[in-house]
User: Which sequence fits this backbone?
């Protein structure tokens, strides 16, 4: 069966506005084909959510953007430069400019919160231990996690607090881009709401470009300027949250409708909740119906 035609809505897609340009990418693991002729552009200043069925290749694709997984075919360009052509110096620059929030947080259990947050600073800068510690404290403030956690080990933190530390680690090096791999996975609804709020806040305050792989539709529709749906090995549907929510395209409609009962149940039980969640301060309630997002800068 031939893949569906791609529905695409972009902001200013001039070369200067494109951060990642994915062209004809293919990836398979043995007989299992995840991506085939996949095209996608990530625009400067936007928050792009990537949705799709479980196991469809969303997380693998995100790792491709960070040059953590090789391509079988096609090319990925970062600010006009092919990842495949980058030498070690260029790859180091890429990893300084692109922060990554790993699925299941991927904190180093043998390191303290401070050491986890400062890991990239230790690897890529000449900052002193005192400077790194001060930066780690600032990052804890930015993700609404108490400063007294600075010397704790991950094993002593709750799931929500570990996610906040992972966010703090991603922003410590002051990236231009943040890639989020299932940032709300395994969290209760209140902490899902809080982490989604932090993604929005970091985008506003740091003016970063964000790509969010998520199975949580409330997060996808609440934080993004655009949503790309990975379907049958391609990004077959790329649109604004508002248009995608009301799409009549068969696979899109089926995917959204399947998620709506769970979304309504979560919203009814927790949507009006208040409080800070674990270790934080301000909270935020995600809207069930998407509201207009600001245009990418």
Assistant:
């Amino acid at each position: 069966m031939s893949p569906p035609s791609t529905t695409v809505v972009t902001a200013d897609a001039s070369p200067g506005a494109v951060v990642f340009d994915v062209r004809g990418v293919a990836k398979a693991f043995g007989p299992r084909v995840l991506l085939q002729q996949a095209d996608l552009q990530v625009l400067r200043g936007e928050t792009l959510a990537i949705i799709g069925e479980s196991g469809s290749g969303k997380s693998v694709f995100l790792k491709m953007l960070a040059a953590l997984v090789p391509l079988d075919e096609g090319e990925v360009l970062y600010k006009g430069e092919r990842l495949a052509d980058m030498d070690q110096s260029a790859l180091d620059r890429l990893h300084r400019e692109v922060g990554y929030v790993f699925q299941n947080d991927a904190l180093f259990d043998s390191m303290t919160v401070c050491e986890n947050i400062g890991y990239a600073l230790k690897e890529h800068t000449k900052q002193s231990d005192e400077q790194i510690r001060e930066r780690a404290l600032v990052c804890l403030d930015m993700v609404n996690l108490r400063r007294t956690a600075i010397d704790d080990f991950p094993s002593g933190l709750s799931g929500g607090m570990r996610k906040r530390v992972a966010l703090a680690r991603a922003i410590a090096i002051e990236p231009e881009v943040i890639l989020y791999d299932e940032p709300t996975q395994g969290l209760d609804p209140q902490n899902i709401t809080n982490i989604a709020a932090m993604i929005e806040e970091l985008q506003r305050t740091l003016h970063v470009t964000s790509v969010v792989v998520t199975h949580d539709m409330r997060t996808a529709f609440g934080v993004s300027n655009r949503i790309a749906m990975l379907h049958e090995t391609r990004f077959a549907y790329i649109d604004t949250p508002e248009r995608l929510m009301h799409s009549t395209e068969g696979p899109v409609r089926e995917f959204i409708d399947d998620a709506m009962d769970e979304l309504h149940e979560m919203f009814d039980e927790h949507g009006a909740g208040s409080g800070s969640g674990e270790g934080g301060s301000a909270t935020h309630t995600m809207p069930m119906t998407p509201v207009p997002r600001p245009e990418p800068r």
Remarks:
- Confidence is low (pLDDT under 50) at residues 1-16, 270-277, 279-297.
